[in-house]
Amino acid sequence: MADNELIWRIAGGSGDGIDSTSQNFAKALMRSGLNVFTHRHYPSRIRGGHTYVEIRASDEVVDSRGDGYNFLLALGDSFARNPKENAYYGNEEVKPLSENLDELREGGIIVYDSGLLDASEIPDFEERAEENDWHVFDIDLRSMAREHGREIMRNTAGIGVTAALLEMDLDEIENLMENAMPEKILEPNRTILHEAYEMVNEEYEFDHDLRVPTGEHEEEQVLISGSNGVAYGALDEGCRFIAGYPMTPWTDVFTIMSQHLPKFGGISEQVEDEIAAAALALGASHAGVKAMSGSSGGGFALMSEPLGLAEMSETPIVLVEAMRAGPSTGLPTKPEQGDLEHILYTSQGDSCRVVFAPGTPQEAYEQTRTAFEMAYNYQIPAIVVIDQKLSGENQNVPASAFDRDPNPSLGPTLTEAQLEDAPHDPSGIFQRFSHDDPEDDGVRPRSLPGQKRGRFLVTGNEHNESGHIEEDPDNRITQMDLRMKKLESIREDLDSDPETSNQTYFGPDEADYGIVTWGSSQGAVREAVERLNDDGHSVKAIGVSDLMPFAEKEVTEFLESVDEALVVEMNATAQFRGLTQRELGQFGEKLTSLLKYDGNPFEPAEVVEGFEIQIAGNEEAPTANTRLEPAVSD
Amino acid sequence: MSAFNAIGEEREIDREEFTPGIEPQPTWCPGCGDFGVLKSLKQALPEVGRTPEETLLVTGIGCSGKLNSYLDSYGFHTIHGRSLPVARAAKLANPGLEVIAAGGDGDGYGIGGNHFMHTARENHDMTYIVFNNEIFGLTKGQTSPTSPKGHKSKTQPSGSAKDPIRPLSLSLTSGASYIARTAAVNPNQAKEILKEAMEHDGFAHVDFLTQCPTWNKDAKQYVPYIDVQESDDYDFDVHDRQEAQEMMYETENVLKEGTVLTGRFYVDEDRPSYQEEKQAIGEMPEEPLAERYFDDDYEWERSYDLLDRHR
Fold it and tell me: Start and end of every Pyruvate flavodoxin/ferredoxin oxidoreductase pyrimidine binding domain (chain A) (predicted)?
C-alpha cells in the first residue's frame, strides 16, 4: 500500500457529470506530479442509478484500485427513483452516501451535499461515523451551485471543498476548467469553485490528517484509458478502417476510432450487426486496407463465422474483445475474464489465431500494435482482449511512450512487378496459396484485387494453390500444415527478443512462491506482490498476455522456479489455469486458483489474503467475494 | 502512379477471358438456371468495359456460390449469407473495383436478409445478383424463403405455412436504387439488365430466376416470361416509386400462379451512392484508401498528435 495516497471517490447518479468532473480532477492530480489511476462503477442505465468514479493518487506507482478509499464526495442523484416501500431497488436518493460507507477507511473524510442528501435516513450513520473516526462535512453544495449557476455545478462546488480540505492548490484545476468549458459556463463554475474553497477555509476547522500527496514526474505524463491505448495502437499501425456495432464496453474503442478516423482520412462504419462488422473488416483488408472490428462477448459470438473465414482465407484482421461479465447479457457494465475460452476456441475447426491480453493502458497500446504486426505479417486474425475494467480505467503514461514511428505495412503483399514473376497456373491465375514456395514461416505473399497478374480465388472451403475448392487429402494436409505452421512462426517471432516480451514480471527474480495472472488483473497482483514481500513473504509474479500462441517458454520457466503458485483471474471456472495446464501438460499440482466473479475487479488486499490463506497455510476462509479452488493434478 | 493498374485499363476485352483456362466446365446439374447467370455475366462484363482483374466477385454459399469457380476474376467465396458486407467494404476500400455480389435466395433473403436490407439502405455502388430458384438446392430441396406457401419438402412435410418473401418490394422499401428481375430462360434480357446494373451508380439488385430442375421447377415453368417494359399489358413508370411498388406487388403475386413477369421495376438515378454521401460529410477520402499503403511519400498520422486532450 502506498504510504501516502489519496483515494477520492465521487458518487452520484448517472447523468450528473461525475465522469467529466473526475476526469479533470484526475488530470489536475497528475499535473501536480502524482501517479493516478481511475476506476469507474456504473449501472446499465442512462439516467440515475448509483455510480461512482474513484481516483487513486500517489507518488508511488498505482496501477490498480486500492483497498477501500479515504475520501468520499457524495453528490445527490438528480434522477433517483422514488421507491414504494419494499421496492427491490431501495431508496435511491441516499445511495450516493449510503452505498459507499462500507469501503471507506477509518479516519476517512465524507463530504456530502446536504441540499440533496439526508444522512438521518441512513441507519446508524452517526454511530458508524464515530466508530470509524470519519470526518463528516455536510455542506449544501446545491444551494451554492444554484446561487451562481445551475444545479449541476454542485460538482464544481464539491471539487472546491475537496481542494480546501486537502490543502490543494486550485491553479491546475482552474487551468483544466478553462480548457474544458466554454466561456458561458466557465465563469459561474470558477465563482463556485472559489466560493466553496474559501467557505471551507473560513467556516470550518478540521483536524483530519489526510492531505493531497506530493510528487514529481521525470517526464510529461498523459492520462490514458485502456480503450485509448487500443485505438492509438491501431492508428499508429496504419489501421484506417473500422466497422462495429455498439456494445458496452467495446463501444469505447469504437467511439474513439470513429472520432479520429475521418481526420486521418480513414473510414468508420457503424453497421447492422457484428456479423457484418467482422465481415466488413475482412472485405476491407482483402482489398488492401488495414482494418479492425470488435465487440464484447455477445457481439463477439456473432463474429465467430467471419473469424473462421479469416483463418481459412488467411485474411489479416484485428478484432477487439472487450469482456464483460456473462453469461448472456450478464452484468453489462461490470468486468469479468470469463470469455477466455470463447475467444480462443469459437468458430468451427482448429483455432488458428493470435490472442493477446494486455494488462495496462500502455500494454494495450503496445500489444495492439503487435497484434496488427502479427495479423498482417502472418495473414491471420489477431484478437486483443480487454475488459470493462481496462477499457474504462485511466492511468498516467509518459507521453513519450506514443512518440513512435507509424507502421503502415500490409505485410507480405506483392507489387504488380513482383506478380509478373510469381507462380501462376495454366489459366494465368496467381497461385496465392502455393505449396511449393512458402516462406520458411508458412506465409505466402498475397496480391490485392485490382492488381494486374494477381487474380485469384479465395474461399472458406479448403482450396488448392490457386484458391479453388479442393478436397484432395494430400492438398488438405499441406494447406492445413502451412496455416498451422504460422502459429509456431509467430511464437518464435515473439520469443526472439526477450526485451519486447508481452509478459510482465513483478517482485524479486528469485522467490519461493509465484502468482500467475493474465490481462487486466495484473495491477492488483503487482501491488499485492509488493505488500507480501514487504511483509516478509518470498513471492514473485507473472502477468501473461500471450494466450495464443501461448507464452509456453516463459510460463514454464516461471512455474519451474517456484514451489507453488496462485493463479488469479476474474471468472468462476479457472479458465486460464485450465489453459496453462492444457498447454504445458504439467504443474497441475502446483496451481491453486483465486477466483472472483462478483462484478468487481480484484483489490490488492484480496490477492494478499488469498495468498496468505493458501500458500502460507493460514487457516482463515477468504472474504465472501473471492473463492479458492484447490490444485488438481494434470 | 497507381498500385492497381488493372483498374481503368482501356483495352479490348474478350469474353473468353472470363472463362477459366483449366476446368472451365461447371458442375451444376444439366438444365440448371445458374448457367444462364454465368453466361450473361460473361457477356455483360466486357460490354461495360470491365476486365477480370478489376472485377471482384463476392459470393455466398450454395450452388450459386460456385459462380466464382467458373468466372475467372478476383473472387471471394465467403460464408453463407455474408457476401454483401464483405463486398461493400472492399468497394469502400478501393472504389475503382467493379464489385459484384452474388448468392442464392436463402443466402440473400434468409440468412443474409439483414445485410440485404442494410446494404440496399446504404446504396453502395455495386451489383447484387440473387439466384432465385425458390428452393434450397445444394442441401437437396428444402423449402426456401421464396418457396410458395404450401410448398412441400422433407423439412416442410405438410407444406409451408408461410407466404414467400417479396424480394422486389423488400428491396424497394430498403432503399435499393436499381431493382430488376430477369430469368435464366431469357439470356438476352439478362445480359442487358446486368449491364445496366453494373453501370448504375448505386445499389443494383437483380432478382435472377434460376430454375432448379433437380429439386424444383424446370426451365419450361419459367416460360413464357413477360418483359414488363415490352408488354402492352403493363404500363408503369420505373422512376415512380409508387407505381413501381404496385407493379412489384403484382409481379410477386402472379409468380405463384405461374405468370413470370420480368424487367426493370425501379430505377432511381438521382440518389447519391453511399460513397458520395460519405465523402460529402467528410468521412471517406477522395483517393482510394487502398492506394495509400503503396504511397511512399504519404505522411502517416500519429496518435502522438492526439495527446493534447490527455494532458
Answer: 233-479
Pairing of strands B55-59, B98-104: parallel
- Give, rounded to a whole angstrom, the gap between the first and last alpha carbons of chain A: 36
B11-23: pLDDT as tens digits: 999 999 999 988 7
What is the domain partition of chain A in residue ranges? 5-203, 223-401, 416-495, 503-629
Q: Are A398 and A220 in contact (CB under 8 A)?
A: yes
Write the CATH number for B174: 3.40.50.970
Q: What is the mean pLDDT of chain B?
A: 96
Task: Judge whether A223-401 and A503-629 match in fold.
Answer: yes
pLDDT in tens, B106-147: 999 999 999 999 999 999 999 999 999 999 988 999 999 999
> Would you tell me which residues 376-415 of chain A have a C-beta closer than 8 angstroms to some C-beta of chain B?
399, 402-404, 406, 408-410, 415
Selected from 3.40.50.970, 3.10.20.30, 3.40.50.300, 1.10.3720.10, the CATH number assigned to the domain covering A223-401 reads 3.40.50.970
CA dist A357 and A378 (Å) reads: 19
Quick: pLDDT tens for B155-209. Answer: 999 999 999 999 999 999 999 999 999 999 999 999 999 999 999 999 999 999 9
The reported pLDDT for the residue numbered A439 is: 62
Q: Which pLDDT tens digit goes with each residue over B228-239?
A: 999 999 999 999
Instruction: Look at residue B10 and tell me if it is in a domain.
Output: no
User: Using 50, 70 and 90 to split pLDDT, how confident is the model at A71?
Assistant: very high
Task: Count how many domains chain B has.
Answer: 1
Residue A492: other Cβ atoms inside 10 A: 11
Contacting residues of A for B56, CB less than 8 Å apart: 287, 449-450
Nearest-neighbour CA in chain A from B173: distance (Å): 16
Encode A100-129: b = buried (16+ Cβ within 10 Å), e = exposed: bbebbbeebbbbbbbbbbebeebeebeeeb
Q: To the nearest whole number, what is the mean pLDDT of chain A? A: 94
| Other CB atoms within 10 Å distance of the CB of residue B212 | 26
**Contacts with B, A 469-508, CB within 8 Å:** 469
Residues of chain A neighbouring B310 (CB-CB closer than 8 A): 222-224, 228
Of A366, A61, A30, A59, the residue nearest A220 (C-alpha) = A30
**Which residues are CB-contacts of A238 (< 8 A; sequence separation ≥ 6)?**
A290, A372, A406, A407, A408, A409, B293, B300
Domain that holds residue B257: 15-310
How far is Cα A510 from Cα A283, in angstroms, rounded to an integer? Answer: 49
Read off the pLDDT of each residue in A303-310 and give the average, rounded to a whole number: 98
Contact with chain B for residue A372, Cβ under 8 A:
no
Q: What is the pLDDT of residues A401-459, one digit of tens each?
A: 999 999 999 999 999 999 999 999 999 999 999 987 656 788 999 999 999 999 999 99
Strand pairing category for A513-518 and A539-544: parallel
In tens, the pLDDT along A275-286 reads 999 999 999 999
Residue A41 main-chain phi, psi, to 5 deg: -130, 120
Q: What is the distance between the alpha carbons of residues A153 and A98, in angstroms, rounded to a whole number? A: 22
State which amino acid sits at residue A250.
W
Least Cα separation, residue B298 to chain A (angstroms): 10
Q: Does domain A503-629 have CATH number 3.40.1170.60?
A: no
Confidence of residue A616 (pLDDT cuts 50, 70, 90): low
A462-498 pLDDT, tens per residue?
999 999 999 999 999 999 999 999 999 999 999 999 9
Residue B1 lies in a domain: no
Q: Kindly report the nearest CA distance between residue B245 and chain A, in angstroms.
A: 25
| Contacts A238 to B, Cβ<8 Å | 293, 300
Q: Is residue B4 part of a domain?
A: no
Its CATH class, for the domain covering A5-203, is: alpha beta
